[in-house]
User: What shape does this take?
Amino acid sequence: MKPEGPIIRTRELTRTFGDFVAVDRVTFEVDSGEIFGCLGANGAGKTTTIRMLCGLIPPSAGEGYVGGIDVSRDPEAVKRSLGYMSQRFSLYLDLLVVENLEFFGGAYGLGGAHLRRRIDEVLQQVDLDAERRTLTRALPGGMRQRLALASAMLHQPRILFLDEPTAGVDPSARRVFWRLIRQLSREGTTVFVTTHYMDEAEFCHRIGLMVDGRLVALDTPEGLKREHVPGQIFEMDGAQVHRALQLCRTLPGVLDVQPFGAAAHVRVDPGRLSAEQLKAALSGAGLDDLQLRAAQPSLEDVFLAVVEAGSRCRIPERPEGARGPGSRGPIPTERPAGARR
Amino acid sequence: MSAAEPVLEARDLRRAFGAVQALGGLSLQVRPGEIYGLVGCDGAGKTTAIRILTGLMAPDAGTARVLGQDPLGSAAGDLRSAIGYMPQHYSLYGDLSVAENLRFFSRMFCQSKQEYHERRERLLRITRLAPFVDRRADALSGGMYKKLALACSLLPRPRILLLDEPTNGVDPVSRRELWALLFELVNEGMAILISTAYMDEAARCHRVGLIHHGRLLLEGSPSELLAGFPQLVLEVEGPGIERAEALLATHPAVVTSSAAGPRLRAVVDANRAAELRQALEQTGARVRQAQPSFEDLFLTRIVAGPDATSAVRAEQETEAGA
Assistant: This one.
């Protein structure tokens, strides 16, 4: 059995609104079963990209294929093949949980015993079986979000597009939601997701970063960190962090200084400034009581580096080792042609 | 009023919506030069608290004070221009441009032309919206929209700013800019009350209140709260992580555990950490102790914490019975 090709594929995908180029010649591939994260500032073109790939708006130029279907030629077939959860998910608050699912199932052309079975299945999957007769308005945000996901999964799509699915949801509900996303990916569903939460982006197998409509970086989270946040990061903590920050900005070998919560992150070129030299410089200025420990770069560091560098970045060639989930073990990349779960 | 006096105060605020007790006795104080972060789950009562403190809603019981006065009392008119309020949802006119929105709100605050022009120049500069004055609010990106809403709320030079989840759906760069702006404002003596679901933002506040079921569970500076964190945090990675995950899911020493990117992160009972660590290492995984974060605190106290829910429920039952 040979691995299936990419399930999403774009070439020079472009969309303009009047003079404004919202998405500018974007080329990428997403493998089956992959969690692909699309990051970028507000207005960078993430939602427009999703809307083109979901067949909701036609591209102005270039190509997009989703599940082998050309989004320009057959947008209706594309819509049927995927699940889409928009930024402001559209549930009917005055309906019961089960009624919302019956409504959306009907919209996808499902009915009868098949729909009833699917409703049971998705309610189990998103762990809302106990809320089946609850009025949607009475659900807390985290549960509404899972219901929206359930309604996008009724027709068993192999691809899910999730546009900021967790905006404004509290940390515990976000964790539950991501456990579910990872489970779906392990079972073979491809997930294309946008988020502003960089801790969530860590769960993606690969990440594409958009700036002003262009895709300026594309790699695994580890690859992005290696390329865009080189050097060694130290976290500084203590009463005099503010003074230490100012001092660090003047030291040779310091690449970047950022306040980070109540603490601060200092990134250094270890060839020019060792941990010992940094400590010595701090205690030389009377800042002995600061705690200094090695820290890992975060995707927020990557985001800030890439977005601020903007046009200077280019897309690296996709390395073989970073070919989606296949290299990561537990997630299957193979599926018999045309198989449905 | 001296600088140390609180300018914003809630005393035992209570408010119910039908059978739902949104606030069950909330008390807090915010002083000039301070950013106070209100952190909690959906439905914890953050928005209700902010709406009562701005004078948009009356409490069932308890007292709200703004600059020492009742925001719904006879001073309400005078207080209006002392309070900047940025609601969670869309509050601007989408069909009006950036400049037109600012002018509209300036007129609502009865500002003179000269005052409007001065404020407009400064606010456009600090929010970096000057290049977009003619763009319609509907056509702004999420981050720019929030900055315009903030600029409108800052027009009358308020002494107190109340922000209800201002950074939801805002990208990391814009979030950082917004926070830099908030720090500038408090350095000039403003008092800021902000609600947020971002735990890294909670860590940037001067003081934080963790709100659950309408009352505070914890309050203090971020460093105080984290210093008092009673458990240990372990991070697990490497081969054997699946077995480690299964172990964490069932081991009695684990308070909460979840995936954090390629690693697992667990909050564990300090007395039994050594035993758990040994068991984890036997799976072949690498284990190291990590610094507790605000998210650990939040998940431990609110999701896994037994005290919160039961205490409030008991109180609600008492109230219902009385």
